[in-house]
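Researcher: Please generate the 3D structure of the following complex. Treat every line as part of one assembly.
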Amino acid sequence: MEHRLDRIKKQLHAQSYKLTPQREAIVRVLLEREEDHLSAEEVYLLVKEIAPEIGLATVYRTLDLLSELKIVDKINFGDGVSSYDLRKEGAKHFHHHLVCTECGSVEEIVDDLLEDVEKIVQNDWGFQVKDHRLTFHGVCRVCQEITVKAT
Amino acid sequence: MEHRLDRIKKQLHAQSYKLTPQREAIVRVLLEREEDHLSAEEVYLLVKEIAPEIGLATVYRTLDLLSELKIVDKINFGDGVSSYDLRKEGAKHFHHHLVCTECGSVEEIVDDLLEDVEKIVQNDWGFQVKDHRLTFHGVCRVCQEITVKAT
DNA sequence: TATTAGTTTATAATTATTATAAATACAAAC
DNA sequence: GTTTGTATTTATAATAATTATAAACTAATA
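Model: Done. Output below.
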């Protein structure tokens, strides 16, 4: 964890931003809850536990900053709330999500499934792809089993 | 256009909803501006031209209803505003989007590029895919040419 | 005609997010 | 070591999108 914090610190410094105590606290929360997709509000509540004096606006500003530097990805699953999500170290792309319409769970797919599709888009549409967001909506494994049992 | 309106009317009736004058006006706007991605506010302004007495809340409610019936797709490109977009007749899936980070234009891809990827998700993750949303971020053809000329 | 359920309008309320101004921290220059 | 300037944060206010609510309306039905 310290290693990744250190890398993020360097990324900030490279753009002449500082890793202030508040920013460090926020990054620590994101690292701890890496598998989750936290809303700004959730980050705020978690950060308050280790840095109680922090303000909500700072959380928003920091998440925006991290998002610009491609350290976190900001995504909107359609419920009006933005979620923030650490990008895996070295990952070129946003990872994919599987959103279950039954239980609301969000699973991640780290593999890049879109290499071929991107080539098609580049060649056929002349669109130079920089990044992508892919979300599948459907029924997760757990909910499928429940449905089967129920019938 | 009348044909498609009629089909939508039937879809509403099938779920025992009525095609009220307000709903009809909204659907007409969506049909006229099919290639666009309109926000609720934009729909509201356009509908007011043909049905001035309509309320914004009705627009929201109707778009939500159409969205539930999969007649329109609601999408959020990350700017906090939801866009609404008619689903092509007979289309099983949400279509894909190419969002240009230079000029903000949004292009549509109607082809389904994800059949193979969906199979992988179904088989490897056991996730039963119902729908998907795929957006590419990058530089559109026009902006690429501008960049080339500028150098 | 009276009734009922569904729908709309107008408005208020809510929620997420952003802007602002004053306070603070901290590094560089003197 | 103080001063100065810039970046950052805090607290609060403002904004913008969306949703909830209550009253009015409509159309079908008993």
